[in-house]
Amino acid sequence: MFYQPKDGHGLPHNPFNAIVTPRPIGWISSRGENGFDNLAPYSFFNAVAYVPPQVMFASTSSKADRDFGKDSTANIRETGVFCVNIVEYAAKDVMNITSSGFAAEEDEFEKAGIEKTGCEMIACSRVANAPAALECRLTQIVDLEGEGNHLVLGEVVGVHMRDDCLIDGIFDVTRFQPLTRLGYRDYSVIREVFSLVRPDD
């Protein structure tokens, strides 16, 4: 099968997200100038550079009660900071609650019963028991093709790692089993890892 996205795929559901998988989930916490905290998952998320460490996430629609994208993008544009919380399998249900379209002034931490704590380097809350959290300062927001599509890039200025996930100096993802996003309404979980040595190593 071949199709051009501009012409449609002719399938019951769009296969694009099922092709580009698995995707890590950036559970983005932010705070607006009004002091309201926000927490929302984004599956268009990844690390993009080592030195300095940088991450990105993309928001792909808008909210009626915001003049710029969703709550996360609006908050980050106002304050210039955000935190990426890593999602473990055990948090799948509360993460899913935070994907709801709550009003801008509603706190997803409270709605989902998630304990929050303050960040060290930025004025933002983070998920208290997350396996890891990356405190970020905004470097740029890029408007993408299509209505409501925004790419947010940030430099990581602080890193939290849960102690039980550090084994002999290695951050062991099997200790918390990262949740990943697939296509449609599907998710997956990482429970096994293996290593490959590059030919020139």
UniProtKB/TrEMBL annotation:
GO terms for molecular function: FMN binding; oxidoreductase activity, acting on the CH-NH group of donors, NAD or NADP as acceptor. Pfam families: Flavin_Reduct (PF01613). Residues 18-173 form the Flavin reductase like domain. SUPFAM superfamilies: FMN-binding split barrel. InterPro entries: Flavin_Rdtase-like_dom, Split_barrel_FMN-bd. PANTHER family: BLR2425 PROTEIN, FLAVIN REDUCTASE LIKE DOMAIN-CONTAINING PROTEIN. This is Flavin reductase like domain-containing protein. It comes from Pseudooceanicola batsensis (strain ATCC BAA-863 / DSM 15984 / KCTC 12145 / HTCC2597). The lineage of its organism: Bacteria, Pseudomonadati, Pseudomonadota, Alphaproteobacteria, Rhodobacterales.
